[in-house]
Amino acid sequence: MSGYVSVSSRIKSVLDLQLRWYHCTGIRTGFTLRMPASAHSVDASIGTVSSAPVGWVGSGKRYYGEDVKGEEEARQFRGIMKEIAGAGGVSNPQEFVPLLQWIDHGRLEKRLMKLANKTDAFLQGLIDEKRSKEEKGNTMIDHLLSSQKSQPEYYTDQIIKGLILVLLLAGTGTSAVTIEWAMSNLLNHSQVLKNARAELDNQIGQEKLLNEPDVSKLHYLQNVILETLRLYPAAPLLLPHMSSEDCTIGGYNVPRETMLLVNAWAIHRDPNIWHDTTSFKPERFENGESDVNKLMPFGLGRRACPGASLAQRTIGLTLGSLIQCFEWERISEEEVDMVEGNGITMPKAVALEAMCRARPIITKFLSMSEDEF
Ligand code: HEM
What we know:
This protein has 14 helices and 8 strands. The protein has helices at about 5-20, 40-50, 70-90, 95, 100-105, 110-130, 140-150, 155-190, 190-205, 220-230, 265, 290, 310-325, 360-365, and strands at about 20-25, 30-35, 240, 245-250, 250-255, 260, 325-330, 350-360. The strands form 3 sheets. Strands 2-1-8-7 form a 4-stranded antiparallel β-sheet. A two-stranded antiparallel ribbon has the order 3-6. Strands 4-5 form a two-stranded antiparallel ribbon. About 30% of the residues are buried. The protein starts with 6 loop residues before the first helix and ends in a 6-residue tail after the last helix. Helix 8 packs across helix 10. It is an alpha+beta fold and about 375 residues long. Protoporphyrin IX containing FE binds near residues 171, 238 and 310. Keywords: Heme, Iron, Metal-binding, Monooxygenase, Oxidoreductase. GO terms for molecular function: heme binding; iron ion binding; monooxygenase activity; oxidoreductase activity, acting on paired donors, with incorporation or reduction of molecular oxygen.
């Protein structure tokens, strides 16, 4: 976190921060605090606390937000990510009418090949850039390249590119979208927000910043996240699976090699399973494991999400930090719009906008010397 802003510029901006409400826009990359130019340096340091990690690409570069260096490269990256997200959500008529393969209807395969080549070239560029540098950094690519030296047969460039993509595609958008849904729910349920803030004040206080190991003490906050994942699972249909044998599901005969989608969104709202199913009630998870075991936002079984526990920690840390550091309010009397948009990771149809005001910890945080972080 160090290196963003000098101590004096932090202190200068503190008063400004404490007096005003700032407007925040929940763009797809997580929360961005929009502040006037006078507080820009503060924006940079807070951004590290509050924003979801999309855009860091394991190479230490930021491609989203206001402090982007290398705009052309960032634009290229954002373009690729947008195309991948779009391509992931489309249905392919050729899978339903195989004849269409012969006339290459929609040219989907060609477009995907082009996109794959473009993505591969971009990621290879990042690896080559790191490899050519004398000084080794502390980024994911640096570490993977050093593993490549000791285990070249496993850590090939191809594997490294795959790992970066997994983190980007599976790991960041899902977590960012969940934080945005969680914050929207909190803004529409002021008592839940108060309870979450009271828990943070009791357990952590305003003297030290929330840390990752603290998140396990915050049971109410974790229930807020579970309840968000119940009502707004980031992957509502999980990922497509394929039947390996002929089988029967719910009375339907399913032939071998049929694509199967599990509607976790609907299961999470099934009145036969959940009480008061559409209400946002984190308290429902206070009665032990039984309700938690009915959730499946990360899938189940062998192919369940391997990042589930990482996701719960990073979401807990980010959401907890947002609540610990800021007071939050809606931009108007009107409730935050909770309509779902389209996309492979279920976005909000209307991006969240909210007001935030710094809490006392920000004063302490911003007046600390860089060595104290
Ligand atoms: C809120 C956050 C997240 C949600 C809701 C989520 C959800 C899911 C779901 C539903 C699946 C498919 C499970 C199935 O096929 O039944 C999946 C797969 C996967 N997720 Fe996540 N995920 C999240 C975060 C992450 C993170 C942080 C990472 C890694 C850093 C990650 C890595 C993966 C990978 C690699 C797979 C593919 C596993 C396989 O096919 O064997 N996910 N995730």
